[in-house]
Amino acid sequence: MTTYKPSRLFASASQARFAPTIQNTPPLPAIDWSQVGQTAPKLLTSSSTGLPKADAVVITWAGAEWAALEHVFCSSTTPMRYSARSTSSWSGWTKYAQNLPAGAPSDWEFWGEWRLVQIGSTTVLLFKSNTHLDWPGKTFLADLIQLLIKDVEPTLILSIGTAGGAETGDHIGTVRAVSAGTLYKQGAAQGSWPVYKSAWQAAGTILDNPNFASLLFPIPTTAADLQSLATQFNQYYKTDYSLADLDPDGLNSGDPAPRIANQSGGAISLLTTPTFVVGTTSGQYGSYVCIEMDDAIVGQVSQAAGIAFGFVRNVSDPVQNAALTSEIQGNWGSTIYDIYGFYTSHNGAIAAWAFLAANS
């Protein structure tokens, strides 16, 4: 997971990647936009040799997030199979590799891929980033956001995708929208960490529609699947944890109705970390809505340019048991993300669409 991938830090180079499976893997359903009096986003073509102009940019980061973005914004009339979460390319998207800066890693070959859609009267550039705070690094991510601002000329940049939990009551699939990001600084006092804020206030009129819940997809967690994941986890890592040890307070079970919390306006922040940091049941990062690995840089560059920004993040792996080691916390978080991030990202993308449509 590009935004939050503990296994990347802990798995040894010689160790085969843990690939757990579950039984309950329903497809994402076709979306009936008429339930909320709306129509599907309209796909647009562009003859631009670079990045086209658009009113807003929606940027996402990892493969499962991209699949959900594709489903909600581009192909919502048909169901999307669970196996699509690992799709590495989608038809109609254009790779953006212009103006790559000198000094970049040799295996980083493009900024990302884009597609243009229209929501009401608003043109939206969808962007799947190949550029991250952890790789190829902060400078290159800042360069990307500057390019998007300069070439696309948006009035709003939204970053959407998965995140680790920070609030101790958030079940998997909770979606939180904010317009402030705090950048973690290792070794510095928490109160001194820089915060980047936007006054962007997401309109909640579509979320308030009594039929909006019909567009959401409850995370299809089952007791049998979670127990199976714990068993597979113990077999792979040669441990002996109970499901209750790995899944504190049952937070890995999705709510019957996914929660969408609109906390935009700049008063409440998420936490962006350049290295592995996990929220736990101790609540040490409970003043933030979630933990991820890119957004504060988006906020820093956008704030400097005077561009509104917001973050719509879904909790793909809730807070971890504080009694466990950081390695176990990270590996279990990665396990839950790998299995359910596709589903949690669907509801995050729906929420992002709703905010854009409400302001269109």
Structure description:
Helix 2 (63-73) packs parallel to helix 7 (326-358) and helix 3 packs across helix 6 (295-305). The chain has helices spanning 6-10, 63-73, 138-152, 223-237, 243-246, 295-305, 326-358, and strands spanning 42-44, 56-60, 94-96, 112-119, 122-129, 156-165, 175-178, 180-183, 195-197, 260-262, 270-272, 290-292, 308-317. It has one domain (36-97, 108-358): 3-Layer(aba) Sandwich (Rossmann fold), CATH 3.40.50. Mean pLDDT is 94; it is low at 1-15. A hairpin with a 2-residue loop joins strand 4 (112-119) and strand 5. The chain has 360 residues and is α/β, with parallel strands linked by helices. Strands 1, 2, 3, 4, 5, 6, 7, 8, 9, 10, 11, 12 and 13 form a 13-stranded mixed sheet that branches. It is globular and about 55 Å long.
CATH superfamily name?
Nucleoside phosphorylase domain
**% residues in beta strands:** 15-25%
Indicate the percent of residues in helices. Answer: 25-40%
Q: Write down the domain tally.
A: 1
CATH architecture group name: 3-Layer(aba) Sandwich
The H-and-E topology, N to C, reads as: HEEHEEEHEEEEHHEEEHEH
Q: How many strands, which pairing sense, and closed or not: the largest β-sheet?
A: 13 strands, mixed
